[in-house]
Amino acid sequence: MERMKIEYLSLKKITEQHSEEIQEAANQVVASGWYLLGEATKTFETAYTDYIGTRHCIGCGNGLDALTLIFRAYKEMGKLKEGDEVIVPANTYIASILAITENGLKPVLVEPYYSSLELDDYLMKRAITNKTRAVLLVHLYGRCAMNEAIAEVCKRHQLMLIEDNAHAAGCTYNQRKTGHLGHAAGHSFYPTKNLGALGDAGAVTTDDDELATVVRSLGNYGSERKYFYAHKGRNSRIDELQAAVLDVKLKYLDRENQRRKDIAEYMIAHIDNPAISLSFDPIADNVHHIFPVFCDRRDDLRQYLHDNGIETALHYPVAPHRQRCYKSLNKLSFPVTEKLARTELSIPCNPTLTDNEVEYIVETLNRF
Ligand SMILES: *Cc1c(COP(=O)(O)O)cnc(C)c1O
């Protein structure tokens, strides 16, 4: 097969798919003279509310803010207090953990199963103490992380369920969208995400009227109405330009996710190399934000793919508990998470890939 050159993810190509519509939407905002908390934001929030199925969607600055604002709002509402424990996967992006510690809450890290990458519900049960108040469930890689065992643990122990839906826009569980499975969810529209803006943006979705009001207020300095402040808030808003772009791109999200699924399905069916393992649970819905493969010789595989024109990424090379910023967690041991950090390699998987490119990726992997 002829050598190809394949970027891990070309944001240029992602945007070019809809560039005319995006430019038209952006032009309208530019011409409107109104750049924050206006019609474009309202329109997108309504569209995303309809899409996720929740009663509320509150746009905010980014995905980390979305999660941080949820925990902060629960503190303002008296449902969480400093020192309360939040169960969170050990194998996640740092932002999931930052949202917890930022609020003076204690992250209690739980390992995934190596076979499915799902949160180990046995370890999760063992991690529960009389201070455990919530679970932050992360739909990592775009795969729905919810299952009956986790739902059962949350119900039995009356834990609040908060979703980190940064990887999983458009994913479903029992006919509900992720982002509508628990009490509240944080969404990221970082440009590389399945629903990506042209800059930073995020949102909180929830069915809880009070939470929605508090989150909206916290993101706007804590104001109840102009110049009257109920909370010591911050500034975290989605801007009109990003909202307008997202409103265009949301219309294509399902189609683009379907293309990701088709690509992933092909790769799962055709990758055939004993050195490369695919950890996936075919039951859970998966919008394939990231297509991870696992290989003991990960760095060699990465170099080999690079030499063959295929760029890859790592999600994530160093687990949160091994980071310098979390000294107090450094002594903990999470062998599964550490093994994933050592062996994970993210293969290109996005709607701009052509069939030829996907075939080339598979053939190259099989020749390793
Ligand atoms: C991207 C991401 C976030 C944070 O989103 P930002 O918009 O970049 O702040 C949170 N959690 C996970 C799992 C992410 O991948």
UniProtKB/TrEMBL annotation:
UniProt signal peptide: none
Protein's UniProt keywords contain Transferase: yes
Transmembrane segments: none
Domain of life: Bacteria
Alphabetically ordered keywords of this record: Aminotransferase, Pyridoxal phosphate, Transferase
GO molecular function, one term: transaminase activity
Key word Ion transport present: no
SUPFAM superfamilies: PLP-dependent transferases
Family classification: Belongs to the DegT/DnrJ/EryC1 family.
Protein's UniProt name: DegT/DnrJ/EryC1/StrS family aminotransferase
Source species of the chain: Prevotella illustrans
